[in-house]
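Slide 14.
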Amino acid sequence: MKSNGSVILPSETQSREFDGKLLLACYLAERGLETYVGSRVDIHMQIASLPRSVYIAKDFRVSSARMFDILQGLGNPIMAWDEEAILFYNAREFHERRVHPGTFGRVEAFFAWGPQNKEFIATAPAYHGAPIHDTGNPRIDLMRPELRAFFDPEVEALRARFGRFILINTNFGKLNHFVERYTVRPGGRDASVGGVITPFMEGAWQHRHGIFQAFQEMLPRLASAFPDLQIVVRPHPAENHDTWRQAAGGMSNIHVLHEGNVYGWLRGCVAMIHNGCTTGLEGFLLDAPVVSYRPLVSEEYDLHLANDVSWEAYDFDSLVATVRELADGRRRSLQDRSRLDVAGRFLSALDGPLAAERIADHVTAFAAPALSRPLPTAAERVRARARAAWRASKKRINALRPGHKNSRAYNRHRFPGIAVPEVETRIRRFGQLLGRFDGVIVEPVSENIFRVRQRPRIT
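Slide 15: predicted structure.
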């Protein structure tokens, strides 16, 4: 099949994003598009050597501004969704924390997770009229009944490794950052956004800090309450694991790690504990036993959606009782029509065509005319290549600096790496479950960058 153009799909966090983007790459391959999928860091290091492509960004924050400049100088049109868009307090907070006018204005089409996210994008002060496609997100596809079995091998391996286990998912990245200088403390500053903290953010982080402390205090007590179960703490991808190891207090049945996609862990555990965490919503969609531990409550600052679709425990004793009933099978699923309708206000493509297929349709329609436009001038392309090379050289230097946000340790913390045979296995699993993708192949480009395309016809 003749290529209809190329797409670049970068993944910042392997365990969170890669599988969904690989699924999207398979749908794009069926439509004749080649997709470069893999580590965002590695893709950006080699951006000037990749072919002219539609670039699908993971956000439109200020941190993406420099790369957006380079992309446009190279002639790469930009589409985008926001990987952090599922749970937000309100439109104001989304606009303050996730939208930067200089990057937002460069996006030519947006993919919304659902009706609320579409509204938040459309009402941003910097919104410039670009199409907003309410498609859902490929990460949610993996929770639909037709694809849940994708993680069966992981579920079996986890149960063989840990037996019956409680999963604790934390989401305190701002308060417990892997890179110390990006940790935000009450009354402090947020280095990731230039030090700016709005009054709302300060109040929210004061509240979250109390919950963060309560989770640390809860951990060894929970291990003592369930000596016959293993407890796995899965920190947010941006978090410092040592904080949780210290909180474990040497308890032998506590394990702190972040491995693989969380969906296998959610399906394998006897109970999952969170507070306002995306995985609470994901667990609900997977029909998993999810509990929101809420030792502190705030109508203004709590992230309600994930809590509302979970069993809720407001003190340690009720948490233990709830987990015990779930582990013993004495509590039933919370997945009912009313809660699914609530989720549907935030997430599209919970039935019907998969989000990946819907997005692939829009990308296919966009790619041909966008990639046939005249290239930027030769001078603009030279400047973009020079900026890409300068940026890459600085990243290589910073990768050697311990404690830097671009350190190799932090980059590999977020994207540990994956080999071609494993990528091929995942594509085969998708194909077996969906009855398609027979002609889709994967080829290595470099470390953690893969080209997914339709197998050429033999003539």
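Speaker note: Residues 199-225 form the longest helix (27 residues).
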